[in-house]
Amino acid sequence: MSLLTPQRPSAGAHTDSAAAFVPDQSRAERTTSYAVADFPVPTGREEEWRFTPVDRLHSLIGAGAETIGGSEIAWESELPAGVTLTEITTERARELGAPAPADRAAVVAVAGAGGAMHLDIPAEAELSEPVRITVRGGGAQPAFGHLVVTAGRFSKATVVVQHTGTAQFSEVLSTIVGDGANLTVVPVQEWTDDSLHLGQHDVVVGRDATVRHIAVTLGGGIVRLNANATYAGPGGSFEGLGVYFADAGQHQEHRLFVDHEAPHCRSNVEYKGALQGETARTVWVGDVLIRAAAEGTDTYELNRNLILTDGARADSVPNLEIETGEIEGAGHASATGRFDDQQLFYLQARGIDEDTARRLVVRGFFASVVGRIGVPEIEEHLMAAIDRELEGQPVEPLEVTA
């Protein structure tokens, strides 16, 4: 029998309506399919959509959305030697191992894209510079995309996928990592405040491979990302990390599903978010499934939210579903709260003004995640962007060159 563990209530300015809710089905039973007809248009009453303002997303998930023609998305790239970016068919993406869509947004994105971009990192390549892909929006028309990243056996690389400009964009990002490879994928969302972005980000972890998926969301009117991790063999390690900062009127939603099916694999999830301004809204849902065959699993998930002003709201729902007792460990934690007045007092008592003190506290809050990206210029950019968020200034898009 599986053990379903919903989030318990915690103090702070957040809701926890999921505390008394037990999911109506195992994550193992949820639909995955390339057929649009298998995913009805959501109403907002479904468990996986109940936090999302679906009434504002009709252009991306409504009936017939997948038949919309045209796109105002430009793809730009900076590729180290040996790395290639080519156009492929959806059938070829499936042959490469791209997981099937798991919700209405993803299946419409694949159908609407009509193909995929394939980023290939050769086997045994060790890249000293990150691969950079920029997805640049140029208007408010619906657009769809599918990016497939393959990292060959024993390769080592970092891939940064930057989303910027104005767009209504729905995407699937499929990452297939070969045995023994070490890959970091950093999707950065710095859209304008009137943009919509839906994404399914899949990671397939090869045998003894190490993968980090680091989501950074600082812009967009509505951003909803689903990150899913599976294991192709034993010994794999997955880290799902995230940083998000929501201002007034923004809805930022991050959902994770780690599916432990192979034995002796590890996962660690850590997401941190800050909210300021009336109607700022964030949602974090973390699901971990440990199947009966996944003996020796070691997993932990953590979500922390920092409420900076009145009127902001954070929902945090971690879940564990465990089908075997033969594991190394499994746990989760969630906390939402306001500024620590003692921290502010300590800093101000040493001559630091209040605005600077607040900025130092927030930078310290995010540093443990940002510091794991491993690309100094990107880490510096994100810390500067967080400072601008605190000051109420527009975030300048990430523009770095090799």
Number of domains: 2
* Main β sheet profile: 18 strands, mixed
Number of strands: 18
Structure class:
mainly beta
Please work out how many helical segments DSSP would assign.
6
Rounded Rg = 20 Å
- The helicity comes to 10-25%
InterPro entries: Fe-S_cluster_assembly_SufBD, SUF_FeS_clus_asmbl_SufBD_core, SUF_FeS_clus_asmbl_SufBD_sf, SUF_FeS_clus_asmbl_SufD
Protein name: Fe-S cluster assembly protein SufD
Region (Disordered): 1-27
Organism: Knoellia remsis
Question: Can you walk through the features of this model?
Answer:
It is a single chain. With 402 residues, the protein is mainly β. It has two domains: 3-342, no CATH class; 343-402, no CATH class. 15% of the residues lie in helices and 43% in strands. It contains six helices and 18 strands. It has an 18-stranded mixed β-sheet that branches. Helix 5 packs antiparallel against helix 6. The protein is globular. The chain starts with a strand and ends in a 12-residue tail after the last helix. Residues 1-22 have low confidence and may be disordered.
Which key terms come to mind for this protein?
402 residues; mainly beta; 2 domains; globular
Task: Characterize this entry briefly.
It contains six helices and 18 strands.
List the helices and strands and how they pair.
Elements: E1 3-5, E2 14-15, H1 58-61, E3 73-78, E4 84-88, H2 90-95, H3 104-113, E5 116-121, E6 131-151, E7 156-177, E8 182-191, E9 196-205, E10 210-217, E11 222-231, E12 237-246, E13 251-260, E14 266-275, E15 281-290, E16 298-307, E17 313-322, E18 329-338, H4 341-348, H5 354-370, H6 376-390
Parallel strand pairs: 2-17, 5-6, 6-7, 7-8, 7-9, 8-10, 9-11, 10-12, 11-13, 12-14, 13-15, 14-16, 15-17, 16-18
Antiparallel strand pairs: 1-17, 3-6, 4-5
Helix pairs in contact: 4-5, 5-6
Family: Belongs to the iron-sulfur cluster assembly SufBD family.
GO biological process, one term: iron-sulfur cluster assembly
Pfam family, one: SUFBD_core
